Amino acid sequence: MQTVERAASLSELVKADGIRFILATFVDMTGKPCAKLVPAEAVDMLETEGVGFAGYAAGAIGQKPSDPDLITFPDPSSYTPLHAIKPGLAMVQCDPHVNGKPWPYAPRVILRSVLDRLASRGMITKIGAEAEYFLVKRTESGVLTVADEKDTSARPCYDARDLTRMYDHLTEVSAVLNGLGWSNYANDHEDGNGQFEQNFKYAEAMRTADRLIAFRYLVQMLAERRGMTATFMPKPFTDRTGTGLHMHLSLWSADTDQPLFPAIEDVRGMGLTPLAYQFIGGLLAHAPALSAVVTPTVNSYKRTTASTTVSGATWAPRRATYGGNDRTHLVRIPDGDRIEVRVADGSANPYLAMAALLTAGLSGIDAQTDPGEPGEGGSGDLPPTLLHAVEALAADPVVSGALDAAGDGVSAYYQQVKREEFLAWHSQVSTWETDNYLV
């Protein structure tokens, strides 16, 4: 008889690593990490009774001031020791509940519901994410600038000198990632001044999403220690390249753990199966609505609509197209075992982004959607603003269905939050307006 190894409980993990405090964490729909600091002595209570939050105070998570508390329960599989931040500190991602049931507005609950749908079809997904960010600071006069004052060239991408000047920060992050077993395999200077990318190995979707939340927190805390701000804002500088969150997706058989995208023979030359093309077809067909989830801020559209940058390229897709090893497409196919979705940016909530992308792709499989020949697209230009994207989401039952995966009304709530965000920005008088309309 085969023995099934039992996963360690949170209390066992905490004891083994000498943890003194746990950040019991969840994110709201904007991706804001919310946490309570729980002492190790109370970890058993955290596991059995959860920890409570006033949901409305926490942020955009579908609650009113009169609603019952969110009670969050930890998932030990997300346990992440963070000794580099504070000795004895760890983080664990939690699933919010209300009145004993998973809260349908919680991003992690939404992604789990979509992954359950995928599992019912005998499939799992593995996802890798390229998390870009800027290291910035403010001058004495309050002007935002890159943290490295010597990082000024028009073509800074891969520059060994700019990279080396941030050696201490980058190598500290790398050491932490490898210490966690995440397999950091590359660290580079990206195309914008002050912009960097640090890669870690792909994993199953929920694990990658959890790691992205921890990664952002880790990078920001370590940057603060050196007097810098690490920002995942899509477009902090008008004339510089924006920050993407490129996602590499693949589907696998849950029974055999064999990849479902690679093909030995492919008349289109991409090395993909018909199922993979149908998945791509779903992404392209629903690209406008997806934009509201994977490029979810007003600032996101300063990246996707940028005409040029100092370096000469924006690296952000403007139309819903796919192709081979070509970084101008929304869907790039670097090789036959995966696809790369290049539209998402650093402001995306990874749980919601993955849920939406997977749902759109699966709809393409169900409808046997043909994406056309490489270089073609399913839905033309991407939305020019967040408001346009929200309207596309409202008209798209497939992507709205992804947000409603754990309960009805979530997509409508999300749309309202994003409309209000757009209108709050729109009501502000900008320098551009006074420059153009004052006289």
Give a verbal description of the structure.
The structure is a single chain. The chain has helices at residues 10-16, 43-49, 55-58, 107-120, 160-165, 167-179, 205-225, 274-285, 287-294, 300-304, 350-367, 386-394, 397-403, 410-426, 431-437, and strands at 21-27, 33-39, 51-53, 70-74, 80-81, 89-98, 101-102, 123-138, 144-146, 184-189, 195-200, 203-204, 229-231, 245-253, 319-323, 331-335, 338-341, 377-381. The longest helix is centred in the middle third of the chain and has 21 residues, at 205-225. It contains 15 helices and 18 strands. The strands form two sheets. Strands 8, 9, 10, 11, 12, 13, 14, 15, 16, 17 and 18 form an eleven-stranded mixed sheet that branches. Strands 1, 2, 3, 4, 5, 6 and 7 form a seven-stranded mixed sheet that branches. A hairpin with a 2-residue loop joins strand 16 (331-335) and strand 17 (338-341). It is globular and about 55 Å long. Helix content is 35%, strand content 23%. The model has no long low-confidence stretch (mean pLDDT 95). It has 439 residues and is an alpha+beta fold.
